[in-house]
Design brief:
Layout lengths: L2 E8 L2 E10 L4 E9 L8 E7 L7 H6 L3 H7 L2 E5 L39 H16 L2 E11 L1 H12 L4 E7 L9 H11 L3 H5 L3 H6 L7 E6 L5 H5 L1 H11 L4 E5 L6 H18 L6
Parallel strand pairs: 4-5, 4-6, 6-7, 7-8, 8-9
Antiparallel strand pairs: 1-2, 2-3, 3-5
């Protein structure tokens, strides 16, 4: 059961924003989907987009400029929220932006009081695809995944843990080693506790080091990103991929920062990349 909040025509397709009651997160979740014109004729390939800290379903859909190319390529795009929300959902006690509401980190929390609601991994991997398959003309057996910052971390780790579910993965300015950066250390210690073996299950570099199967991967990082050295740690991802013989296309984009100006500049490259690996996409 879904509740449609809004519908808007765009590039011959449609943007639909909706809510639903989630069993995974035990709250009302909001998401948005873009359906290309080809969806009028049957199920279309689906790209998951996972957004970053403080974002909702709206940031990508309003700022990325993805619809023209997605319509041309026949790709649906779904943008879920970045965390559970609601009066009963706990937040960072100090109200910080990097934990709690808007900062679910796409993990299944094991620690109280977070475990009841912060099950974003299960929500993205299992529950939301089933809901989309039921209500929209999308092929959930023909999916790719992408994201930005915290969402880039989510996209990479989810794809590496589920290589048979996704045809390809890409990321903009991902948190590459959450175990070793302040954002990730704070989130993981609260959501997952002190056992770093649990942390490794949600760390891109740890997963590649442990032998995660290779799948098509594209990563873009702006060189003027103020979070690059302390939080994102792209050098470590490059080194781990080289050591493991894991083939990933990693690009440094000169002068670009962490914003949606960066994402909107290169989003069409990412959409084409995914279309190459998703079956039955138009040229």
């Amino acid at each position: 059961m879904i509740n449609i909040l809004s519908r808007a025509r765009v590039f011959g397709g449609e943007h639909i924003r909706f809510t639903h009651e989630s069993d995974a997160t035990q709250c009302t979740m909001t998401a948005a989907i873009f359906l290309p014109p080809a969806a009028a004729e049957g199920d279309v390939p689906l790209l998951f987009w996972l957004s970053g800290l403080t974002c909702t379903d709206e940031n990508f859909m309003t700022k990325a400029g993805a619809f023209r190319m997605a319509a041309k390529l026949g790709l649906a795009i779904v943008a879920p929220d970045t965390s559970p929300r609601g009066e009963d959902v706990p937040d960072d006690p100090e109200g910080a932006y990097d934990f709690g509401l808007g900062a679910g980190f796409y993990v299944n929390a094991t620690q109280e009081p977070w475990a009841e609601h912060y099950q974003m991994y299960d929500y993205i991997v299992s529950e939301l695809p089933e809901l989309l398959d039921e209500h929209f003309p999308v092929d959930t057996n023909n999916m790719s995944i992408s994201g930005h910052s915290m969402g880039g971390h989510g996209a990479l780790t989810i794809a590496l843990k589920n290589p048979n579910r996704y045809q390809s993965v890409s990321a903009f300015a991902p948190i590459c080693v959450p175990m070793d950066c302040p954002w990730g250390e704070k989130a993981f210690s609260h959501y997952l506790g002190d056992d770093e073996e649990e942390w490794e299950k949600y760390d891109t570099c740890a997963l590649i080091e442990a032998g995660a199967p290779e799948l098509p991967m594209l990563v873009d990082q702006g060189t003027a990103d103020t979070f690059l050295e302390e939080q994102l740690l792209l050098d470590e991802l490059e080194a781990v991929c080289a050591d493991a013989g894991f083939h990933a296309l990693i690009r440094r984009q000169e002068g670009y920062d962490h914003s949606y100006f960066f994402i909107s500049t290169f989003i069409e490259d990412h959409l084409r990349f995914h279309a190459e690996h998703l079956s039955h996409s138009p040229d």
